[in-house]
Fold this protein.
Amino acid sequence: MKRPPTMKDIAAELELSVSTVARSLADSPRISRETRARVVSAAERLGYVVDLAARAMRSGTSSIVGLIVPDIRNDFYSTAAKAIADCCQERGHQLVLAVTDDDPKLELEHLRNLRSARALGFIIIPSVTPAQETLRLMRATPHVQFVRNCAKVESDWFGIEDGEAMRLAARHLIDLGHRRIAYIGSTVAISTGRDRLEGFRRTLQDAGIAIDDRLVKAGSCDTEFGFAAMQAILAEPQRPTAVVTAGARMSIGAYDCARAAGVDIPSELSFVGFSDSPTLRWCGNGLTTIALPVRELAMAATDFLFRKTASDQQSERPCRVMLAPGLLLRGSTAAPRCALVTA
Amino acid sequence: MKRPPTMKDIAAELELSVSTVARSLADSPRISRETRARVVSAAERLGYVVDLAARAMRSGTSSIVGLIVPDIRNDFYSTAAKAIADCCQERGHQLVLAVTDDDPKLELEHLRNLRSARALGFIIIPSVTPAQETLRLMRATPHVQFVRNCAKVESDWFGIEDGEAMRLAARHLIDLGHRRIAYIGSTVAISTGRDRLEGFRRTLQDAGIAIDDRLVKAGSCDTEFGFAAMQAILAEPQRPTAVVTAGARMSIGAYDCARAAGVDIPSELSFVGFSDSPTLRWCGNGLTTIALPVRELAMAATDFLFRKTASDQQSERPCRVMLAPGLLLRGSTAAPRCALVTA
DNA sequence: ATAGAGAGCGCAATCGATTGCGCAATTCGG
DNA sequence: CCGAATTGCGCAATCGATTGCGCTCTCTAT
């Protein structure tokens, strides 16, 4: 409750001016060793800490970094958050967590807040349909787009090779002998949704497999959609022998649905999940899934943001970093019971 | 890059004084409707937002709320974080996320940072062994202890009825006919660890079941410990027929170990997990687990913190809120193969 | 008609850290 | 021994929002 001591208090204690205290603490040259030592020791003794608000006011920008995510309970984002938090901690920045639930209104509000706080910059997983003002605010503040890319703002983007992820999944199933493969992914309104579906399509085409559009479901990226999509797929007269999912939450929903419907995995249906988390290892016989280099990507993005805000020079063209996903082979995929291997 | 407009800019635009602008925006009485309207519209037009740093400086405290957690990837904590973030968003506070990894040094550093930021208050899951200065800083700032309770600081505490959680788990197993029940929990150095073990012990005693101390493992609360503890338990000459776990991470580790060792759950071993997450539903035949009212608890804690910081009156005695856990019955528990039901 | 009430708004100080400028003391070169 | 260079430190302004105080001007009541 009693306010923390300020430089003024230190100055009074040592009968020095505030400027001298400031310069001592800032390790400025024009201060004698002796004075500096006295100041430092007094600061420690009194329990002095800089007032970040005051510093932010002077410098015009705070040391706050924003993280704008749609869902912190998602293992993918919480892993990223951890990595980003680590980076911020190392460099003495505060990490402000903003959860949007993919709601453009909340997203905008959080962006306004960060602007109010004079945030140094932010890392954002853009919502599906950002508001106009959101775009304006993004352009006005240093930031990095994470995973998803909103093309309406030309900015640096750290993502996953989404097409490659789906190629891995589809290729794996094709190699096992599957020919009738369903796809459950997020809306093509998001960059990741587009790229993933594209990767899936191309892989099947390259393998000379026709795509049954009734088995391709792209919608919102939540658990409910995954569940509904799987339900629709299972209701098809001619069921697929395999499913790839292209989103963590919908992957869980789809898996839930299949299990609840009593579908045996993998004998009746091979299932490729998306993103990994510790518990997925023991879903049934283990979930074959796409593993993403989340931590590496998040750290790269954060480092980049710091470097960008540190150098006042505007970067020439937007940076674009894509990391490669991997495929974790576990027990949810197998050869189809009646393999239609024609080759 | 161009600085956001300030009250001064608005004042200049309308040829008013800064004070009038401030009062208009603050909805102060002594301002005519007309002036207020002009100011508000100009503010909107220019895209004005308060400078939180400046406001914090004047008021002596920022609108920042800290959240200090050991692990944001843990579903329990990320669920809490979501609830807390929602509360903060509603009231226009910024949520600063600080992850400690249960490291007292990091914990202290984060606490110092929050002090630097003149945080309004914070919600903390205290680490196992907080540093002396951590305790001092806690006493100096409004805060709420969440789930874990560090008795060295007398403060408000929002927790789970830990003893009751273990009673539910143990009672369930006993009712199924188990008599040889192992326990894997966190160190008794933490309040939760203590209370949980206590609840377990008492329930077995009340049922007249002797406790084999070789089957009681209490250690660090990470996945690795859970794994090791299960390994030790499985190595016992006389294996237990059931295990209860008392911590989310160690629960996963223990489950991993059992599955990896080829133990059939539940026929060879009944397993009660701790804390729930969407994917746990499909671990094997589903994981019977203790479900915690995380969101409710987190919201209650946050609300309380806000009420506390709003009223300048010091609360008389520390508040202590405990919510009751539940038991989610799924497929990982069953009657033991050779039930030694004596009754 | 005029004092008193109140409404509407401006002046200036404040919060704490930072920094350009300037003053004084010391040291150096010649 | 003197001007110049260097070192060590203080003054004062600045960042933007907030607020107590006080100055006008209008309106009302006596």
